[in-house]
Amino acid sequence: MTLVGACGGPVASAPRLDAGPSPVPRKSAAVIDYPPFIGVLVDGDDHWCTASVVDSPRGNIVATAAHCVYEADSSEPRTISFAPGFAGQGVGKQPYGAWKVRSVQVDDRWQEQEDDPYDFAFLALEPDAQGRNVQDVVGAAGLDWESGPDRQVTVVGYPEPDHNPDNHPVTCTTDSRADKDLPGMVRMECAGFWNGTSGSPWLTDYRGPDRPGRLIGVLSGGDTDAESTAALFGSPARALYQRALKA
User: Is the residue at 167 inside a domain?
Assistant: First the structure.
C-alpha cells in the first residue's frame, strides 16, 4: 500500500452500559467540549479530518476514514500526526500534544476502487516525547465488529473552519439505518456535518466522556451536511485493525 504519512488478536469490546441516561436524539449538530480521545489529523499548521483513539493492547491505534489518509496518485508521503482534543481558531491548540503516525492501514479494495464500504483506516502512532502511548493519556472507545445498522449513535466531528472558525467539535445523537443505495453503509440525518467531519466516530452506548461506548464505523461522506454515511464495521475492518496492531 501507499503510506500517506509517517502519518494480533482483536481487543475485547467494551461492555454494554446499563447505567446512565442516553443522550437526547437531535436533528442538528451542537457545539460541545467532547472526550479528549477525539481529535484531528495535522501536518504542520494544516489540519483536516476527524479521528479517534480506539482500544488496543498497546494503546496506539486511531480510526479514521481511508480517504483522509490515502492518496493513490501521491508521490510524496505526508508527515501526519494526530492531535486529540484539538480546538481554537487558526492553527488551533493541541492541549494533549500530537502523536506522529507510524503506519497507515487501508483496505486493498479501497486502494483499488475507492469502494465506499471500505472507507475506513487504522493508524498506528508512535509514543510521544515522554514515551507515552496516546490511549494512556486521553483514553479510547471500544470497538463493535458485529453491529447491525439500526442503532442510536453519537457522532462527533470537526467541521472545516469555514463553518467552524473556532475549530470546536460538534456532536449529534440520532438514529442510524441501513443505506438503501449503498450496501454495507449506514446513514444518519443530522445537519452540521460539513467537510472535515470525515473520519468521525459513530459511537453506540455513549454515556459521557468517561463512558464513550463503542465504534461501529467512521463517517465517510454524504450528499449534504445533513445526510452522512459510514461504512459499518465488520470482518474487513476487524482484519485491518489486526494489521494495524502488528505495524
Answer: yes
